[in-house]
Amino acid sequence: MVEILDHSELNDKLIQKIIEFKNLSWEHSYESHLEWLNTNLQNGDLHFFYMESSILVGYMNLVRIVVEIDNKPIPFWGIGNVCTRYKGKGDGLKLMQQVNKFLLSTSSKGILFCKKSLIPFYSKCNWIQIKNLHPNSDSNTFVFNYLPNEFYNLRYNDRLF
Structure pTM? Predict the structure, then answer.
């Protein structure tokens, strides 16, 4: 089961739950995680909570961003902070399948940035790798529900997520 909450719906208890969960994948201080949330997420952005038997097993956020395609701004959801409680048990794939279903049901496009080691995972999730749009040349860019055309000029100048 997936619970989706707008960033504006979070209270202190949910923020603490998110930070504790994210810390399973990225060990930082509570204050560092809180600062990241406050700096990078806005009302209208979404939090995905993937539950199995009332246990939180996966989390991610979707950020409203814009990708320029041939100098026209096109809305996308930026996928960030994909993390699971148990590694290697298929929960990440299930979480991404739920996000894919959300993107398709809302006729939305998705974009994400990842490390080289995660390319096989996101490919398995039916995301398509395109030329890197992230300012960090070590990142890789994937899209979903958007068929890239080699003749289009894509640019990304929005916030990082």
Answer: 0.91
